[in-house]
Specification:
Elements: H1 2-20, H2 76-85, H3 94-107, H4 109-112, H5 121-124, H6 143-152, H7 166-184, H8 199-216
Helix pairs in contact: 2-6, 3-7, 6-7
Bound molecules: heme C (HEC).
Residues 107-108, 110-112, 122, 128, 130-132, 139, 141, 145-146, 149-150, 154-157, 160, 172, 176 line the site of heme C.
């Protein structure tokens, strides 16, 4: 008799719990602002502007900050045009040359080799074929064309616009020109702020000195 009573009570409690919930009505929302933002979501519907959007699209021709339009086309003609007319806006300084050399090591040397002779590690392991030397007689490389291939890539070589910005691509270009000059045995571009011909070595030792002082401190 006692256990029957217990069963009855349990059924009663369970029944009352179930009957109280109503799945037609939404559940309680604690902190509703977390779910339904008071502010408009970007580009959602809104009644502020005439086109029914909550935000205005940027004016046509708008470019992101730090970007400049690139007017040479991704085509053989575009490459020829860039080779002829596109010029490096950066001055040849120790800083730009050093940055270019470092970026080249990151992004290009795996294929083109540290010296630009086309014997990077991916070339020697035959992962990529047809990587040219910058001194290849069949190629005419200018600052414009070196920049252009970094923008769009060329056949097996990809574009580097995702990894580098405009300034970095020009710094790399300077370094590639110097590698080419070295391979061809023609004069290299010298930094305008270089005091002596051994300035590169001096820059390195300055960098090491300041590192050492940092460590000592
Ligand atoms: C995955 C390997 C690979 C990497 C990494 C690579 N390249 Fe290339 N690059 C190639 C190949 C392959 C070619 C030959 C393309 C062709 O002519 O078909 C080439 C060609 C070139 C040329 C010659 C273009 C011409 O006008 O003939 C230049 C200059 C060049 N690369 C610069 C760079 C620079 C600068 C970087 C780094 C930002 C870079 N490459 C990274 C594979 C690579």
């Amino acid at each position: 008799m006692k256990s029957l009573n217990n069963i009855f009570i349990i059924v009663l409690i369970a029944g009352s719990l179930v009957s109280c919930s109503n799945d037609k009505k939404p559940n309680y929302q604690f902190m509703p602002n977390m779910y339904e933002s008071a502010a408009y979501e970007a580009y959602s519907e809104g009644d502020i502007f005439l086109d029914g959007q909550s935000a205005k699209k940027p004016v046509e021709g708008t470019i992101p900050r730090g970007w400049a339009p690139y007017e040479y086309e991704d085509s053989t003609e575009g490459l020829a045009d860039a080779r002829e007319n596109l010029k490096n806006p950066l001055p040849v300084t120790q800083e730009n040359l050093a940055a270019g050399s470092q970026l080249y090591t990151f992004y290009c040397a795996v294929c083109h080799g540290d010296k630009g002779d086309g014997k990077g590690i991916l070339a020697t392991r035959e992962k990529f074929l047809g990587i040219p030397s910058y001194a290849d007689a069949g190629r005419v490389l200018t600052e414009g064309s070196i920049y252009h291939v970094q923008m769009y890539g060329l056949n097996a070589m990809g574009s580097y616009t995702a990894q580098t910005d405009e300034k970095e691509r020009w710094q790399i270009t300077m370094h590639v020109e110097n590698l080419m000059a070295e391979l061809k045995g023609i004069p290299k571009k010298l930094a305008i702020d270089a005091t002596t011909e051994t300035s590169e070595i001096q820059v390195d030792s300055v960098a090491t000195d300041s590192l050492q002082t940092e460590v000592e401190n």
